[in-house]
Every structure is written in structure tokens, then in C-alpha cells.
Design goal:
The protein is of the alpha+beta class and 495 residues long.
């Protein structure tokens, strides 16, 4: 009997806000332990929570980005459990009336478009961070109370690779929507994996195994690559899987059982008595909806359609919206958008990276922290966008060669001079005078009898050697296509 995996993901995302969810303490990574705390986020007696409106706004905006419906009534609930990192001994979350529900995410997978349904994206608070030392443990409550959004998928995923691609697509949406910085090294995105197996062709779900607190997408993939075969092996041998929670040991490459799984009633949910339900107005919802950005996949498909770009180029612009916006600002006036894309992707991006690396090294040598160095952006370029159109036109009109164009671009980047001015100053104009090139070809043929004999003997590649000699004689200014035509004509004529 063949078995298949059924996977659902619970993705926890820290929201990009200045302050915490219920108080004015800073939402700041890297501060000294237990310095961004107050009586509210420490859960001291007598305090009352005040919701962070920006967190509410970003949660509803996420709902719009994920094609969710936005209920006209939502509320917060207490999820009761006793862990050292939970200062109140409960977590404020949303249980039966979340802020968003019933959406979906489309993403590329296996050469097509896959869809994963979103059950809900609800708002809650993060807990503190436990650190275990050799003889004791410590808890840092700086993270306690940070706005945390949990995005719950339906069990629509069927493989480790599919889960990995879904998570990357979700991250792209959240980044480009301004919801979160999604820095996994800082714990801004964490994931719980729910996975079961069942016989192929059946619809009944197997026992759900949850793998907790995955902190990298590649870790999720590796854990599933181990866990799915493990479960299949158990059932094939006649064993029984029991609903439970496991942890992933990335070093050993195995999952390990932590405990049998709690059900919802184990948390004794009840409505938060210190907060009124949320009832967004039409005006508030309209203002949030106006912040919706073009989804990454939609942008990629549009760039391919509107500018006839290949998938690879469109993927680059999808992943880097600023680069894509710069491209579109030029490509609307371009006769050949693909040529403009080539210059932006292959040349401009690398030049900006080089300039930023150089500036950062210089600043660090002066004692400036890397985080305080402002990188160069497109607004800092010395040449106007139209200069790229001019450069492309010079190449396509055969005024300059491709190699000369590289020199022109480098000068443009450094000085901001117009391409035509650089061509004139440096004498880079391409020679297309037939008579002049014929004379150079005759000289190269006379000086290189061996490649000539090889070509006439059928070794076509020998022509490249002769082309190189002509280009050398012309100091790189001869029109390469014309050089090839003239050489072929001369070498095919009787010796």
C-alpha cells in the first residue's frame, strides 16, 4: 500500500511595529535582557492591556494580502498554560473569532501554480525567550508582548518541497507588504509543522504529529524529509501513530517526541475580560485596504506578459521590488525591454553592490558600525534612467560594440556623463567602414597562414582566431559582425 503526506503549517510572524502589543515598551531586538519591560508585559497585578492599533492594522492588511475575509467582529482570548517564559501564565490570542479568515496563497511549484488555503491569520502576543546555561536557565522578557501573528494553513501541502516553496512565497508577501522584516536569525519567523500520513486515495486524516518551533524554512524541509518516511515506516510495520508533539534535532537529523499533544480544551480558552471585542468601521477597513500592494507572483506574471521578459528576469524583479520599479520606469519607453533588463540585472545591480561594499569598508575603517551605513539606492545614481535607454540604442544601432558598451557604462556609473559624450571622448565609436575593415582582414589573413589553412580545411572554429586578430588590429573598434562576414567571404574565395 502506498502512503501520502498531509501537511499544514502554523507560521508565527513578529509584526513590524515600534512598540509591543499591549504597552509602550519598545519592540526592539538585541537590547540588554529585561530592559524593554514594564508592569503590563510582565503581567503584574492590576494592569490593563491597550491594543496596538498598528498591529491590528497590519493583521487586517495581511488578511487582504492573503485573500481572506475580514469579520466585522473579532475578540481576544486567554490561552492558559504555565511556562517560565509566559509571565502572565496565559497568552493573549484570538481563538474562535479571529481578525481574518478563509483565504489562500498561490505560488509556483513543479512548473505550475499551487494553491494553499489559509484558515486564518490571527493576532496574539509573543512570549519571553529562555536561555539554558550549564547549571541554570534564564528568561529574557524583552520579547514578551511583542505583536505576533499566526498564519494557519489548511492541510493542503503534500511534500517537504511544497512546504518550503509555500513558506518562501508567504515570506515574500509579508516582506513586500511591509508586515514584518521576516529576519529568521532574529526569531521574527517561526513555524510549527503538522504532518500526518494516509493511504493514497483516502480522505481520512491520520494522527497529527506536530513539530514545534522550527526557525528556518530549510529546517522545515529537512524535518519533513525525515518525519514523513518515519511515519510511513511505522504504519507499514503495523504500528499506530499517536497525536503528539515532537522536536527537530537539526544536528542529528531526527525528530524526537516531547509529549502527547494537548487539545484546545487543555488550554481552557476564555474571552479576555479586560478588552472589548474589535468592530472595525468601514472607513478604517477602507484605509487599510488602500495599503495593499501588488503580490509578488502577480508582479512576475505581469512583467512577463507586459514586457515579454523570460521567467528568470521577471523572478529577479519579483524578488527585488525596488529593482523592478526602476526597470519599469525605463522599460515603458524602451523598444527592447529585455535589453534594458539585461543591463539592470547584470551590470547595474553588481555595480551598486560593489559601490556599497566599498563604502561600507571605508566607513568601518573609520569606526562606523555597519548597521549605521546607509546603502546607495537608485536615487543616488549619478546618471538619469534615460541614459540606459541611450546606451542600449548605441549598442543596437551598432554605434558601439558590446565590449565598448561595458566601458561606457562603467564611466556613466562613476561620473554621470551621457553615453554619447563618453563614446566621443574615449573614441569608442565602432568602425563599420567596409573598405577599412577589408584592409584589416587582408592584413590578418596574410599574417596568420595557419588559422587560414585550418579554416579552409574545414575547421570552422579557426575563424574566431582570425576575428580576434582583426579586432586587435582595430583596437576593438571594428564591427564584429562585419568582420566575420568579410573574413568568411575572403576565405571562401580561391586562395
Amino acid at each position: 500500500m502506498e502512503y501520502e503526506a498531509v501537511i499544514g503549517l502554523e507560521t508565527h510572524v513578529q509584526l513590524k511595529t515600534k512598540s509591543k502589543m499591549w504597552c509602550g515598551c519598545a519592540n526592539q531586538y538585541g537590547a540588554e535582557p529585561n530592559t524593554n519591560v514594564c508592569p503590563v508585559c510582565l503581567g503584574l497585578p492590576g494592569v490593563l492591556p491597550v491594543p496596538n492599533e498598528e498591529a491590528l492594522r497590519k493583521t487586517v492588511l495581511t488578511g487582504y494580502l492573503l485573500n481572506c475575509t475580514i469579520p466585522r467582529r473579532a475578540k481576544f482570548d486567554r490561552k492558559n498554560y504555565f511556562y517560565p517564559d509566559a509571565p502572565k501564565n496565559y497568552q493573549l490570542t484570538q481563538y474562535d473569532q479571529p481578525s481574518t479568515a478563509n483565504g489562500w496563497v498561490d505560488f509556483e511549484f513543479n512548473g505550475g501554480i499551487a494553491r494553499v488555503r489559509i484558515t486564518r491569520a490571527h493576532l496574539e502576543e509573543d512570549v519571553g525567550k529562555s536561555t539554558h546555561f550549564e547549571r541554570h536557565s534564564g528568561v529574557d522578557f524583552n520579547r514578551a508582548g511583542v505583536p505576533l501573528m499566526e498564519i494557519v494553513s489548511e492541510p493542503d501541502l503534500t511534500s517537504a518541497d511544497m512546504a518550503y516553496e509555500y513558506l518562501n512565497a508567504l515570506k515574500d508577501i509579508l516582506l513586500q507588504g511591509g508586515i514584518s522584516d521576516c529576519d529568521m536569525e532574529k526569531g521574527m519567523v517561526r513555524c510549527d509543522v503538522n504532518v500526518s500520513v494516509r493511504p493514497v486515495g483516502t480522505t481520512t486524516l491520520g494522527a497529527k504529529i506536530e513539530i514545534k518551533n522550527m526557525n528556518s524554512f530549510s529546517g522545515v524541509r529537512r524535518a519533513l524529509e525525515y518525519e514523513i518516511p518515519r511515519q510511513i515506516e511505522v504504519v507499514k510495520k503495523g504500528g499506530k501513530l499517536i497525536q503528539s508533539t515532537r522536536r527537530w534535532d537539526d544536528v542529528a537529523g531526527v525528530t524526537e517526541e516531547m509529549r502527547t499533544k494537548e487539545d484546545a480544551h487543555d488550554y481552557r480558552y476564555f474571552p479576555e475580560p479586560d478588552m472589548m471585542p474589535l468592530a472595525p468601521t468601514d472607513e478604517w477597513l477602507a484605509a487599510v485596504k488602500s495599503l495593499v500592494v501588488e503580490l509578488p507572483l502577480t508582479r512576475k506574471q505581469r512583467l512577463m506578459r507586459d514586457y515579454t521578459l523570460p521567467a528568470g528576469d521577471a523572478e529577479v524583479f519579483k524578488s527585488n521590488p525596488a529593482l523592478g520599479a526602476y526597470f519599469e520606469g525605463i522599460a515603458r519607453q524602451a523598444k527592447t525591454p529585455k535589453a534594458v533588463a539585461n543591463w539592470i540585472i547584470n551590470n547595474l545591480s553588481s555595480k551598486l553592490a560593489e559601490a556599497n561594499a566599498k563604502a561600507q569598508a571605508e566607513q568601518e575603517a573609520m569606526g562606523v558600525e555597519a548597521a549605521d551605513v546607509t546603502p546607495l539606492s537608485f536615487a543616488d545614481l549619478k546618471f538619469p534612467p534615460a541614459a540606459l535607454l541611450e546606451l542600449v540604442a548605441l549598442v543596437e544601432g551598432k554605434t558601439i560594440s558590446s565590449s565598448a558598451a561595458q566601458q561606457v557604462f562603467a564611466e556613466m556609473f562613476e561620473t554621470g556623463k551621457a553615453p554619447a559624450v563618453i563614446v566621443q571622448e574615449k573614441g569608442l565609436a565602432q568602425v563599420s567602414d567596409t573598405g577599412a575593415i577589408e584592409a584589416l582582414c587582408d592584413e590578418a589573413i596574410a599574417a596568420n597562414p595557419n588559422p587560414v589553412a585550418d579554416y579552409r580545411a574545414g575547421k570552422v572554429a579557426a575563424l574566431n582566431s582570425l576575428k580576434g586578430q582583426v579586432m586587435k588590429l582595430s583596437k576593438g573598434k571594428a564591427n564584429p559582425a562585419l568582420v566575420g562576414e568579410i573574413l568568411e567571404r575572403k576565405l571562401k574565395s580561391p586562395a
